[in-house]
Write a structure and sequence with these properties.
binds fe (ii) ion
Length: about 210
């Protein structure tokens, strides 16, 4: 068993997007999904604690970040080997970690445990927490919270040159699509409600920006 306090040391203390508070939320949600969906709890817990180890501070900057699911599946192997885990269970955890990324679908979740990690991680992108994380990220990288998207972006998802990627753009591009990408029934039900809340929030944000509310 991996101890939560040990896992805390693998993550930056203050990262609003991939810090340890994200890991704890994913861990609790993954545990809940694993119980309801009757998955292997050891694998799900280990995968949740290890899945973004070292967070956004991944070595290699932007490139390292895009590749973090591979780098950290190797990190996971080292940690679990030290813990004396059998190779098949280690491989199961590594599959969960490699398959959890939304933008890279070269390895899709095959096992129930990988589907659960994917779902728990993506539920953290939507709802009240998802909105807070998206806005926090945009503040850090100096992007605006709300910009009226171009007609081209609305139709194709591609921005006009110079068009900023505001939090609202991220909502249209990614957050609003999450609920249809989830695998487990339990997560799909939770996502429906989070989606409605988020929809209302971004509708209202736009209305306030335009002075309508
Ligand atoms: Fe991740
Ligand atoms: Fe994550």
């Amino acid at each position: 068993m991996i101890d939560i306090e040990t896992a805390r040391g693998w993550y930056p203390a203050t990262d609003p997007v991939h810090g340890f508070d994200h890991i704890l939320r994913v861990y609790r949600m993954a545990e809940r999904l694993a119980i309801e969906e009757q998955a292997d709890l050891d694998i799900v817990r280990a995968a949740a604690l290890l899945h973004d180890a070292q967070g956004s501070q991944t070595e290699g900057g932007e490139e390292g970040r895009h590749d973090h699911h591979h780098a950290f599946s190797n990190f996971a192997r080292r940690i679990l080997e030290n813990e004396g885990w059998p190779p098949d269970k280690i491989a199961a955890v590594q599959h969960c970690i490699r398959a959890h990324r939304f933008r890279d679908n070269t390895e899709q979740p095959q096992s129930l445990e990988a589907k659960i990690l994917f779902d728990a991680d993506k539920l953290d992108v939507i709802g009240a927490v998802g909105i807070a994380r998206t806005i926090a990220f945009d503040v850090v990288v100096n992007q605006p919270i709300y910009v009226e998207p171009s007609a081209r972006f609305l139709e194709t998802g591609e921005k006009e040159s110079g068009e900023p990627h505001s939090s609202y753009h991220e909502y249209l591009f990614k957050l609003s699509k999450i609920k249809d990408r989830l695998y487990t029934k339990t997560a799909q039900q939770l996502a429906e409600e989070r989606h409605r809340f988020m929809d209302e929030y971004f509708d209202r944000l736009g209305a306030e920006e335009r002075g309508e509310k």
